[in-house]
Write a structure and sequence with these properties.
The structure holds two protein chains of two kinds.
Chain A (H helix, E strand, L loop, with lengths): L13 H8 L6 H20 L1 H17 L12 H12 L3 H12 L10 H24 L2 H11 L5 H8 L3 H22 L4 H7 L2
Helix pairs in contact in A: 2-3, 2-4, 3-4, 4-8, 5-6, 6-9, 6-10, 7-9, 8-9
Chain B lengths: L2 H7 L13 H12 L1 H5 L4 H21 L3 H8 L28 H17 L3 E7 L5 E4 L6 E2 L1 E7 L2 E7 L5 E12 L2 E10 L4 E9 L25 E2 L4 H10 L3 E9 L2 E8 L12 E7 L5 E8 L8 E10 L3 H5 L10 E2 L8 E4 L3 H7 L4
Parallel strand pairs in B: 8-15
Antiparallel strand pairs in B: 1-4, 1-14, 2-3, 2-16, 4-5, 5-6, 6-7, 7-8, 9-16, 10-11, 11-12, 12-13, 13-14
Classes of the chains: A mainly alpha, B alpha+beta.
Chain lengths: ~200, ~375
């Protein structure tokens, strides 16, 4: 069996590591090493780099203090950690909205040969992103959490339910509400459906 | 394209962070793992406990002597769990919870060094309860010297404070030295109280040596100039900093595991080779917590010889949060009615095991 530097078998599940960390707290560092990069990226996407460093630390401190309550039936701890991070992000709504507004200014390069065509497409793409970002920022926090965990972090419905400590049915209803809101915002901004076309380009 | 896919399109382009980007977060976690009580304390709880600390510490020492200190210590200290009080109970002969695989030695040493570095970064107050032999801890200052066989030593940034106590826990002397530095001025301040003589002194010496700071209290930063952690030395010996440097310089290896006051601990010892010409050697053992990797106890011992009796010096470590109340408690307490003595000549302070013969004859390092 391969053994990591800290004598924790690499095949050991998060649940097993967390269970062992209840008696040997230093083993919780293994959970950090496994998941911190992903949690950091998630927080960075939502509130930006500067608060992310601090919030990642807070996320793992909170998780460490709650490790005794971890449901050992779940081998993967990442959704559980997403839950702590999401709760902390909830205390930074202003930074989150600002981060979204910053991100809308960045438009991916569009592979169009004609300069005029590209310029027009960029304007449209920027406008579309602006509309989406505004819609995202206007969502109820709970709806936004669900939408982002699914769309950006690619969590499954049960994983989101576990992260946010809500039933799967609530995940579905929140997601549905969020999608409706986004759809309405897009339709109001561009009844011709041009935004969908632009955002569909790779 | 669905709304979900469109939201995915506007996902901010954030790469996974480099390991170095997570260092701060990992250090914070390590620090809390190392001292979970501080993280879990309710607001104000640390302050309340620390308020008691200064008032009770002498009582703690006294209680320890009668063997009832463990519970009291746990209640008072905002520190790592289970550091023992003086005098040390014998190390348990029971086997450790589980043996330590040899291949984890480097990991253990690395963790211990990092735990100490983290404690230093967090400006934790380092507290050592030291038990030596008669007169080994002395105040150095004007008037009659005071000495004790036991002492409590606190180190915090540029401050070092030593309180000599009797076996019964009564204060014999208190002496502090504070080193402060600004770009234009370095100053050493010392204060002392001699309870037997009911006197006190205070002195402040500005130092200007080509505008460079003089690291009087700090441990050396380089392996080339590092001295090993020592039971001897002048006031201001920063044991944890010395231990940290020695660990970083690879001066220790893991010897085994054991229980210190019920704390599962790892025994690490120096790697040095004893010169065969020296019959009398100091034996040094450092115990670090298996859960926090912070020092729990450091113990030196030596056989009788060279005009010195057989003896030992034991230091038990604890780590206190730098709360305003804890910091305030590091100020010297001068009872009313004590007479202030003028300071002439050298700066006052305190010393540990000061005999030069001791250092010359049985100093273990080659």
């Amino acid at each position: 069996m391969r053994v990591a530097e800290d004598n924790v078998p690499l095949v050991m599940t998060d649940a097993a590591v967390i269970e062992r960390s209840r008696l040997e707290p230093e083993l919780f560092a293994v959970v950090f090493d496994r998941h911190a990069p992903f949690i950091h990226r998630y927080v960075n996407r939502r509130v930006g780099r500067e608060p992310a460093d601090d919030l990642v630390a807070e996320t793992f401190l909170a998780a460490f203090s709650k490790r005794g309550q971890y449901d050992l039936g779940y081998p993967d701890a990442r959704p559980w950690l997403y839950g702590f991070a999401t709760n902390l992000i909830g205390q930074h709504r202003r930074e989150e909205i600002r981060q979204y507004r910053i991100s809308q200014a960045v438009v991916p390069d569009l592979d169009l040969p004609d300069l005029a065509e590209r310029a027009a497409a960029e304007v449209t793409a920027r406008a579309a992103r602006g509309t989406l970002v505004a819609a995202l920022a206007g969502l109820a926090p709970g709806d936004r959490d669900v939408l982002i965990l699914i769309a950006w972090e690619e969590l499954t419905y049960p994983e989101v339910a576990r992260a946010l400590a809500i039933p799967v049915g609530t995940v579905r209803s929140r997601l549905n509400r969020a999608r409706t809101t986004i759809r309405a915002a897009l339709a109001a901004a561009d009844p011709s459906g041009g935004y969908r076309e632009v955002l569909g380009d790779d | 394209m669905t709304e979900l896919e469109m939201i995915t399109r506007i996902r901010p382009d954030a790469a996974l962070p480099e390991p170095g980007d997570l260092a701060m977060a990992r250090d914070r976690l390590s620090a809390v793992i190392a001292a979970p009580d501080m993280a879990g304390a309710a607001p104000g709880a640390g302050r309340r406990r620390s308020r008691m600390f200064r008032h009770r510490r002498i009582a703690l020492v006294a209680a320890a002597v009668t063997g009832v200190a463990a519970a009291a210590a746990a209640a008072v200290l905002v520190a790592t769990p289970g550091p023992g009080r003086i005098p040390r109970p014998a190390i348990s002969s029971q086997p450790a919870i589980s043996p330590l695989p040899p291949h984890t030695a480097a990991f253990v040493i690395g963790r211990a060094e990092r735990a100490l570095a983290s404690a230093e970064r967090r400006n934790l107050i380092q507290e050592i309860h030291a038990v030596g032999q008669a007169s080994w801890f002395s105040s150095v200052g004007p008037g009659r010297s005071a000495s004790a066989a036991q002492a409590v030593i606190w180190t915090y940034r540029g401050l070092s404070l030593t309180e000599g106590v009797t076996a019964a826990g009564q204060r014999v002397f208190d002496a502090s030295m504070r080193y402060s530095y600004t770009p234009h001025r370095e100053t050493i301040s010392s204060e002392g109280v001699n309870d037997a003589a009911r006197t006190w002194w205070a002195d402040r010496v500005p130092i200007h040596i080509r505008g460079r700071p003089i690291p009087i209290w700090a441990a050396p930063r380089s392996c080339a100039t590092a001295a090993p952690p020592s039971p001897s030395g002048s006031f201001g010996s920063n044991w944890p900093a010395q231990i940290r440097l020695a660990l970083r310089c690879g001066d220790y290896h893991v010897a085994g595991t054991g229980l210190i006051d019920g704390v599962s601990a790892i025994e690490i010892v120096p790697k040095y080779q004893r010169p065969p010409s020296r019959a009398h050697q100091v034996s040094q053992v450092l115990w670090i917590s298996r859960s926090t990797y912070l020092p729990v106890q450091e113990r030196w011992s030596w056989p009788r010889g060279h005009g010195l009796p057989r003896g030992s010096l034991t230091g038990d470590f604890a780590w206190l949060a730098p709360t305003p109340a804890n910091l305030a408690s590091l100020r010297l307490r001068i009872p009313p009615g004590y007479r202030r003595l003028p300071v002439t000549g050298l700066l006052g302070g305190a010393s540990f095991v000061p005999a030069q013969d001791f250092v010359r004859v049985i100093w273990p390092w080659p």
